[in-house]
Amino acid sequence: MQTHREARPTRTDGRGETLTVVDNRTGKTYELPIEDGTVRAKHFRQIRAYEGDFGLMVYDPGFANTASCRSAITHVDGERGILEYRGYPIEELAEKSSFLETAYLLIHGDLPTKSQLGQWVHDITFHTYVHENVKKFMEGFQYDAHPMGMLLGTVAALSTFYPDAKQVSDPRSRDIQTQRLIAKMPTIAAFTYRHNRGLPYVYPDNDLWYTGNFLSMLWKMSEPKYAPDPVLERAIDVLFILHADHEQNCSTNAMRSVGSSDADPYSATAAAAAALYGPLHGGANEAVIKMLMEIGDKNRVPQFVKHVKSGEGLLWGFGHRIYKSYDPRAKIIKKTADAVFELMGANPLLEIALELERIALEDEYFIERKLYPNVDFYSGIIYQALGFPVDMFPVLFAIPRTAGWLAQWREMIEDPEQKIARPRQVFVGPERRHYTALVDR
Ligand code: SDX
Question: Which ligand 1 atom sits nearest the alpha carbon of residue 327?
Answer without folding.
Answer: 10
